[in-house]
Amino acid sequence: MKRNYICIAFFCFAFLSNVFGQDHETTFIHSTPRTYEIGGITVMGAVSLDPRNIMLLAGLEMGEKITIPGEKISTAIDRLWRQGIFGNVEIYATHIQENKIFLVIEMEELPRISTFEVTGMRKFEANKLRDELEIKPNDVLTENKLNRLRTRGINFYKEKGYLNAKITAIQKFDTATGGINLIFEVDRGPRVKISKIEIIGNEALRTDNPNESFHGLKQAWRWTTGASDLAFSDASVRRNLKSTKQRNVFRFWKRSKFVEPDFREDIKTLTAAYGGKGFRDFRVIHDSITVINDKRVKLTINLSEGNTYYFGDINFVGNTIYPDEFLRYVLGIEKGQVFDEEKLQKNLSFNPQQGDLYSLYTDEGYLMFSASPVEVRVENDTVDLEIRMREGKQARLNRVGITGNTRTNDYVIIRELRVYPGQLFSRSNLINSMNELRMMKYFDDASINPDVRPNPDEGTADVIFSVEEVGSDQVELSGGWGGGMIVGTLGFSFNNFSIQNIFRKERWKPLPSGDGQRLSIRAQSNGSAYHSISASYTEPWLGGRKPYALSISIYTTMQSNGLNKGNPMRGWITTNGASLGLGQRLRVPDMFFTLYQSFNYQYYDIKNFSGLFPVSDGTYNNFSYTVSLGRANLDGAMFPKTGADMNISLQLTPPYSFLNGKDYPLEVPDNIESQEEQRKWLDHQQFKWLEFYKWNFRAGWFLNPIGNLVINPRVRFGAIGRYNQNMGYTPFERFKLGGDGMAMYSYSGAETIGMRGYTNESLSPETGALAFNKLTFEVRYPVTLNPAATIYGLAFVEAGNSWANPRHINPYQNYRSAGFGVRLWLAAMGMFGLDWAYGFDNVPGNPSASGSQFHFSINQSLD
């Protein structure tokens, strides 16, 4: 800006030299460059900056050799200008002594912000604007920056519906710091709503025009016959504007504000919707905002729909593996259907609902496959296509690797994958591998990303899965109400444990981890009346070669009548148990099936508890075998969107009554006279070793119709039977239905099934039910899918019942409820749930069991 001043300054020095008889100096300066040593640098105008820093920014230093004329001075000026903190910069020489030159750097610093204040609104609203603008003390303030800040602030309020927002900037000089106290006076004005969205140019029948009945019949005929060449109605157009809505008193969940960026996205959505009905030439000609008053505007959208187009002939070129007829079947598009570009691309590349050409080929190893649709003829309203295909050669996997894992060992992850070296490439196996990694719950779902690296020359491909580990261990600290008592729970679950690294200090991070083993320790108690301690360990790959999961668990439970230990009337029931199980993955019928088998033993000791439990004092044994068959193909662990989870199990004991040689029903010996002794004798004869079989079935489906919305219907059923009809049903291992499903004080081995809208266990007999059923229909929507804290809301309806006798099962006789709730999953704490439900049906003998109910749970299932 002031560069010419340098030349003028040096011209003056040359003139003075000439006056003093030094003509050769003047001639040298203007015609021949001369090198000087910087003898001194004076900085003038610096207020907040250290002169040494300014010299450093300029790139000049004492003793440095510079050439005049030369580029060093102009470069120094440029460097200072680029800092953006100066309003004026000059560099000139004051005098020359022999070969030394003395320079002055003179600048004018731009003002800096000392404080920033927002007025005209409440403090918390002002803080939101401050956070949006990100103004910091000591920031340089220019006129351009000030205008940008005002524009950002106004746009910030426009996005919230304040279209008439105004911001006045006031600058006050701060005498203490020499800076600027910046004040934004905000006048948001009223929130402006869209009173009406007027649609112009669509040719569909408007329902508010009774004079177009014939036209409406014609359009209705077109819809019912599949000739979808009519345009959208006004209501249809408005529905496709997802974020831009006109005012409607009944739609409280979506405000009718106008936000320019959202509206532009809505236009794209509307264009896609028209394109899906064959309107390839659709476009928005013009849109405008008309101000009605300071609170209302009208949005006008002028459309050009164009004609409806249809698919014509579809031919395939380059296919050698599959014939044209089969490819047309997979493509799922017939001649005469409305032209839909989105559907075409979806059915070529990825359509999880019905399959697509790309999946067809890549599942058989043709990784290099590509299919490009080309419009070969457009005549009238018909589009003929040619699908040009390049099949390529089959590719086999060369290397399968993992990156990003910091705790979990590579082999623990790789053994869960459905892909392995030497296998033909398969996209389905790749997707299934991603789902398996999600179900491990060790990684952020969004971070699981397979990087496929094809090598066409060798006909191979490498697959590298990138993951990001999240905390998988959990601490459970919860409390709940059950059996007329408050029960506290403390538990630790180490879900990626490594038992072989216990004695290796370097592997404690903070616990030995990385081998995928699971160790769980849990304790429950309410003091002296009840306590339960359990521990379990699972090795998912027994021997490390095949997916055989070994599970071992032990537990002990004590429930008393609350009396002190020295009281002769004190009663109790203790349960000690253990189980040994083995699970395995199956390949038939498909890879999603699992088989689990276990042997279980419980030892019951009852004393003075017959009043609270339907068997006499004494000891009882339960030795059983459980087999369960399950299938799960969910696409996520914390918030699955698609897939199904089903399981059927059978628990059975040996048929002792057929092996012990006794005739049932048993006759009490004559020498036992009292009813209490007779009952005790019968209980010990029949239930010394429990005899029963128990069926359990559950199934749940996850459907994802749109966006992140998930529909989750579920069904559960259970029943207990007996081998010998002359014996009574087992008093243990029964079902208890109702409430939050929290399994507190389950001393009899009863299985607790939650049903919201009713109090705990209120829908079953006091001694437990022998059969139950339950139906749930749930809709879920996420608030955040952050791997550290997943939150989603839900709404549900439920129906269920239980019966004291399995012969009385009536699937049409159910208790009903409905409600809504929220779930919070924390990586370190597990799942928290809060539901409100209303039970619609009265429970006989328990009027407070239904109606409005809140259910809170920690690490409990409300299924």
What is the gyration radius calculated from CA atoms? Answer: 40 Å
Put simply, the count of helices is 16
Strand order of the largest sheet: 17-18-19-20-21-22-23-24-25-26-27-30-31-32-33-34
Distance between the termini: 76 Å
Q: In percent terms, what proportion of residues is strand? A: 35-45%
Unreliable sequence segments: 1-30, 204-230
- Give the rounded overall mean pLDDT: 84
Main sheet characteristics: 16 strands, antiparallel
Shape: extended
- How many beta strands in the DSSP annotation? 34
Structural class: alpha+beta
Can you give me a brief rundown of this structure?
The chain contains 16 helices and 34 strands. The protein is an alpha+beta fold and 863 residues long.
Q: What do you see in this structure?
A:
The chain has 863 residues and is an alpha+beta fold. It contains 16 helices and 34 strands. The strands form seven sheets. Strands 17-18-19-20-21-22-23-24-25-26-27-30-31-32-33-34 form a 16-stranded antiparallel sheet, covered by helices on one side. A four-stranded mixed sheet has the order 2-1-4-3. Strand 12 and strand 13 form a beta hairpin. The longest helix is centred in the first third of the chain and has 17 residues, at 3-19. It is extended. The protein starts with a helix and ends in a 5-residue tail after the last strand. The model is unreliable at 1-30 and 204-230 (pLDDT under 50).
